Amino acid sequence: MASPKYLRRAEKKLKKRQRELSRKKKGSSNRDKARTRVARAHAQVADARRNFHHQWSHRLTSENQAVFTETLNVRGLVRTRLAKSVHDAGWAQFVQMLEYKAIRRGRSFAKVDRHFPSSQICSACGYRDGPKPLNVRIWTCPSCGTRHDRDWDAGKNVRYEGRRILAVGTTEPPTPGPGALARQRAR
Ligand SMILES: [Zn+2]
Fold first, then answer.
1. Domain that includes residue 4, residue range
2. N- or C-end of the chain: fewer Cβ atoms within 10 A?
3. Distance from residue 144's CA to the centre of ligand 1 (Å)
4. What's the number of domains the chain is made of?
Protein backbone atom coordinates (compact mmCIF):
# COMPACT_ATOMS: atom_id res chain seq x y z
CA MET A 1 0.00 0.00 0.00
CA ALA A 2 1.49 3.30 -1.07
CA SER A 3 1.54 6.09 1.49
CA PRO A 4 -1.53 8.30 1.08
CA LYS A 5 -1.55 11.86 -0.17
CA TYR A 6 -2.11 13.43 3.25
CA LEU A 7 1.02 11.75 4.60
CA ARG A 8 3.15 12.79 1.65
CA ARG A 9 1.79 16.32 1.95
CA ALA A 10 2.70 16.46 5.65
CA GLU A 11 6.21 15.21 4.87
CA LYS A 12 6.64 17.78 2.13
CA LYS A 13 5.53 20.54 4.46
CA LEU A 14 8.01 19.40 7.08
CA LYS A 15 10.88 19.59 4.57
CA LYS A 16 9.77 23.08 3.57
CA ARG A 17 9.67 24.23 7.20
CA GLN A 18 13.12 22.77 7.81
CA ARG A 19 14.47 24.65 4.82
CA GLU A 20 12.92 27.86 6.12
CA LEU A 21 14.50 27.33 9.51
CA SER A 22 17.95 26.79 8.02
CA ARG A 23 17.72 30.20 6.34
CA LYS A 24 16.93 32.12 9.53
CA LYS A 25 19.66 33.95 11.36
CA LYS A 26 20.88 32.45 14.62
CA GLY A 27 19.47 34.13 17.71
CA SER A 28 16.75 35.97 15.79
CA SER A 29 13.14 35.85 16.91
CA ASN A 30 12.23 34.69 13.41
CA ARG A 31 14.37 31.64 14.00
CA ASP A 32 12.43 30.81 17.16
CA LYS A 33 9.18 31.07 15.26
CA ALA A 34 10.54 28.90 12.47
CA ARG A 35 11.67 26.32 15.00
CA THR A 36 8.16 26.14 16.46
CA ARG A 37 6.76 25.62 12.97
CA VAL A 38 9.20 22.76 12.37
CA ALA A 39 8.13 21.10 15.62
CA ARG A 40 4.48 21.43 14.65
CA ALA A 41 5.17 19.98 11.20
CA HIS A 42 6.98 17.04 12.83
CA ALA A 43 3.95 16.33 15.00
CA GLN A 44 1.68 16.50 11.96
CA VAL A 45 3.79 13.94 10.13
CA ALA A 46 3.67 11.61 13.15
CA ASP A 47 -0.13 11.99 13.35
CA ALA A 48 -0.57 11.38 9.63
CA ARG A 49 1.61 8.29 9.80
CA ARG A 50 -0.26 6.86 12.78
CA ASN A 51 -3.52 7.51 10.98
CA PHE A 52 -2.26 5.70 7.91
CA HIS A 53 -1.09 2.74 10.01
CA HIS A 54 -4.53 2.55 11.64
CA GLN A 55 -6.28 2.52 8.26
CA TRP A 56 -3.91 0.03 6.74
CA SER A 57 -3.96 -2.41 9.67
CA HIS A 58 -7.75 -2.06 9.86
CA ARG A 59 -8.04 -2.99 6.21
CA LEU A 60 -5.62 -5.91 6.41
CA THR A 61 -7.37 -7.42 9.41
CA SER A 62 -10.79 -6.91 7.77
CA GLU A 63 -9.89 -8.61 4.54
CA ASN A 64 -7.82 -11.52 5.83
CA GLN A 65 -8.56 -14.47 8.08
CA ALA A 66 -4.92 -14.90 8.97
CA VAL A 67 -2.25 -12.28 9.44
CA PHE A 68 1.45 -13.03 9.56
CA THR A 69 4.20 -10.57 10.27
CA GLU A 70 7.89 -10.66 9.78
CA THR A 71 10.06 -8.87 12.30
CA LEU A 72 12.64 -7.04 10.29
CA ASN A 73 16.08 -7.24 11.73
CA VAL A 74 16.54 -3.49 11.90
CA ARG A 75 19.89 -3.84 13.62
CA GLY A 76 21.15 -5.92 10.74
CA LEU A 77 20.07 -3.19 8.37
CA VAL A 78 21.69 -0.40 10.33
CA ARG A 79 24.30 0.45 7.76
CA THR A 80 21.93 0.37 4.82
CA ARG A 81 19.57 3.01 3.55
CA LEU A 82 16.70 0.65 4.19
CA ALA A 83 17.29 0.97 7.94
CA LYS A 84 16.41 4.64 7.77
CA SER A 85 13.24 4.04 5.81
CA VAL A 86 12.21 1.23 8.19
CA HIS A 87 12.73 3.54 11.18
CA ASP A 88 11.01 6.43 9.45
CA ALA A 89 8.05 4.36 8.44
CA GLY A 90 7.50 3.32 12.04
CA TRP A 91 7.39 -0.35 11.10
CA ALA A 92 7.32 -1.45 14.74
CA GLN A 93 4.29 0.72 15.46
CA PHE A 94 2.51 -0.68 12.44
CA VAL A 95 3.26 -4.32 13.32
CA GLN A 96 1.97 -3.70 16.85
CA MET A 97 -1.31 -2.28 15.54
CA LEU A 98 -1.65 -5.17 13.16
CA GLU A 99 -1.16 -7.64 15.99
CA TYR A 100 -3.72 -6.21 18.40
CA LYS A 101 -6.30 -5.66 15.69
CA ALA A 102 -5.86 -9.20 14.36
CA ILE A 103 -6.26 -10.65 17.84
CA ARG A 104 -9.23 -8.42 18.68
CA ARG A 105 -10.99 -9.58 15.52
CA GLY A 106 -10.23 -13.21 16.23
CA ARG A 107 -7.93 -13.64 13.24
CA SER A 108 -5.17 -16.18 13.18
CA PHE A 109 -1.98 -14.37 13.91
CA ALA A 110 1.67 -15.43 13.90
CA LYS A 111 5.00 -13.69 14.00
CA VAL A 112 7.64 -15.30 11.86
CA ASP A 113 11.05 -15.81 13.47
CA ARG A 114 13.50 -12.99 12.93
CA HIS A 115 15.97 -15.44 11.40
CA PHE A 116 13.55 -16.93 8.93
CA PRO A 117 15.25 -16.35 5.54
CA SER A 118 12.08 -15.24 3.74
CA SER A 119 13.91 -13.76 0.78
CA GLN A 120 16.22 -16.73 0.25
CA ILE A 121 13.73 -19.51 -0.42
CA CYS A 122 12.05 -20.34 -3.71
CA SER A 123 8.35 -20.30 -2.83
CA ALA A 124 7.64 -22.59 -5.80
CA CYS A 125 9.95 -25.54 -5.05
CA GLY A 126 11.45 -24.77 -1.63
CA TYR A 127 15.01 -24.50 -2.89
CA ARG A 128 17.18 -22.53 -0.50
CA ASP A 129 19.07 -19.90 -2.49
CA GLY A 130 21.74 -17.83 -0.75
CA PRO A 131 21.40 -14.31 0.66
CA LYS A 132 21.05 -11.64 -1.99
CA PRO A 133 22.06 -8.00 -1.92
CA LEU A 134 19.12 -5.67 -1.30
CA ASN A 135 19.26 -4.22 -4.79
CA VAL A 136 18.37 -7.62 -6.30
CA ARG A 137 14.62 -7.24 -6.78
CA ILE A 138 14.08 -10.10 -9.23
CA TRP A 139 15.77 -13.49 -9.24
CA THR A 140 15.43 -16.86 -10.93
CA CYS A 141 15.44 -20.10 -8.95
CA PRO A 142 18.43 -22.18 -10.14
CA SER A 143 16.56 -25.35 -9.23
CA CYS A 144 13.13 -24.98 -10.88
CA GLY A 145 13.66 -21.88 -13.04
CA THR A 146 10.80 -19.84 -11.57
CA ARG A 147 11.31 -16.10 -11.87
CA HIS A 148 10.57 -14.31 -8.59
CA ASP A 149 9.82 -10.79 -7.54
CA ARG A 150 11.85 -10.66 -4.33
CA ASP A 151 9.14 -9.16 -2.11
CA TRP A 152 6.32 -11.20 -3.56
CA ASP A 153 8.29 -14.42 -3.08
CA ALA A 154 9.25 -13.42 0.47
CA GLY A 155 5.58 -12.70 1.21
CA LYS A 156 4.59 -16.18 0.11
CA ASN A 157 7.33 -17.72 2.24
CA VAL A 158 6.17 -15.74 5.26
CA ARG A 159 2.64 -17.03 4.65
CA TYR A 160 3.79 -20.66 4.46
CA GLU A 161 5.94 -20.22 7.55
CA GLY A 162 3.10 -18.46 9.40
CA ARG A 163 0.77 -21.36 8.66
CA ARG A 164 3.40 -23.82 9.80
CA ILE A 165 3.84 -21.93 13.07
CA LEU A 166 0.08 -21.94 13.65
CA ALA A 167 -0.04 -25.67 12.94
CA VAL A 168 2.84 -26.72 15.19
CA GLY A 169 2.42 -23.97 17.80
CA THR A 170 6.05 -22.91 17.84
CA THR A 171 8.41 -20.80 15.75
CA GLU A 172 11.13 -23.43 16.23
CA PRO A 173 12.04 -24.67 12.78
CA PRO A 174 12.07 -28.36 11.97
CA THR A 175 15.69 -29.49 12.03
CA PRO A 176 17.54 -28.77 9.90
CA GLY A 177 15.01 -26.21 8.68
CA PRO A 178 15.91 -22.95 7.01
CA GLY A 179 15.67 -21.12 10.32
CA ALA A 180 18.22 -23.45 11.87
CA LEU A 181 20.57 -22.93 8.95
CA ALA A 182 20.22 -19.18 9.27
CA ARG A 183 21.02 -19.38 12.96
CA GLN A 184 24.14 -21.44 12.30
CA ARG A 185 25.21 -18.89 9.75
CA ALA A 186 24.58 -16.00 12.14
CA ARG A 187 26.94 -17.50 14.74
ZN1 LIG B 1 12.48 -23.22 -7.29
1. 1-63
2. C
3. 4
4. 2
